[in-house]
Amino acid sequence: MFVCGNWKMNITIKEVMPLVKSIGKAAKKANCEVGLAVPYTDIAVANQATLGLFGSKLQIGAQNCHWEPKGAFTGEISAQMIKEIGGKFCIVGHSERRQYFGDTNETVAKRAKAVMDYGMRAIVCVGETLEERNGGKTKDVLKNQIENSLKGLEQSENLLVIAYEPIWAIGTGKTATSQEAEEACEYIRSLLKNKKIMILYGGSVKPTNALELFSQKDIDGALVGGASLVADEFISIINQIPQSKLL
Ligand code: PGA
Q1: How far is residue 31's CA from residue 211's CA, in Å, rounded to a whole number?
Q2: 165 lines ligand 1 (CB under 6 A)
Q3: How far apart (Å, rounded) are the C-alpha atoms in residues 226 and 236?
Q4: Rounded to two decimals, what is the model's pTM?
Q5: Which residues are catalytic?
Q6: pLDDT attached to residue 172
Q7: CB within 8 A of 227, min separation 6: which ones?
Q8: How far is the CA of 108 from the centre of ligand 1 (A)?
Q9: CB 219 within 8 A of CB 181
Q10: Is the C-beta atom of 170 inside 6 A of ligand 1?
Q11: pLDDT, tens digit (0-9, with 9 covering 90-100), for 125-167
């Protein structure tokens, strides 16, 4: 199981230490892997904060990266840069990147490859809009995203994680029911060549719904936005791994 926070464009460098220290301490005792995808400007200091927490399982990662190793791409950050600053993983193809910054399945696959080539874990996000769900297109959308966002990638369970995030559930307080989430994750697993790849659910995960989501057969953890900005909430979520899912 893997529970990963996504701070999005929140938490300045001045705010990093206390949050990472509290979460890092809790991660040390957690029954799952714990990650935080932080803004680029926070990676170094967040890593530094975890250094004092010997044995902490807290991994620091990024939220996006460019696919080229270097070059004339003003404003971009490469996978190598993330690796060298201590990043352990990188989210790619988050719906906010697809929606506001023109990410496509093709660019998502290229970004994921760059991340994996540097030995980091790529968390590839997929998910349908409310319109697509209501139009009965959820499976078609997921199939297209999985096939094309993973095109050419080696399906290694060590380096690849999928996050199913229905767009209508992100930041809206509207969680998919555990049954809706499980159905989608089960379908995604059926499309994967390697069935051991972890599939996370994301979209308004909170202390009050985490246990039920984590108890589903095909849900291997969560990608947590809003609740990862509040130490107590995030810690409560990582402490809800059900007995049945302990290794
Ligand atoms: P949320 O965001 O938990 O605030 O809904 C999830 C995400 O976008 O990863």
Answers
A1: 13
A2: yes
A3: 13
A4: 0.97
A5: 94, 165
A6: 82
A7: 5, 205, 206, 207, 233, 234, 237
A8: 19
A9: yes
A10: yes
A11: 999 999 999 999 999 999 999 999 999 999 999 999 999 999 9
Q: Token pair of 83, please?
A: 């690796």
Instruction: Answer yes or no: is the C-beta of 203 below 6 A from any ligand 1 atom.
Output: yes
- pLDDT attached to residue 229: 98
Cβ-Cβ contacts under 8 Å for 113 (sequence gap 6 or more): 67, 152, 153
Give the helix/strand (H/E) hosting 199.
Answer: strand 198-202
Q: How far is the CA of 240 from the centre of ligand 1 (A)?
A: 18
Evaluate: CB of 166 within 6 angstroms of ligand 1: no
Contact 189, 218 (CB under 8 A): yes
Q: Which segments in the chain show pLDDT lower than 70?
A: 247
Nearest to 178 by CA among 137, 212, 139: 212
- With b for 16 or more beta-carbon neighbours within 10 A and e for fewer, the 90-124 pattern comes to bbbbbbbbbeeeebebebbbbbbbbbbebebbbbb
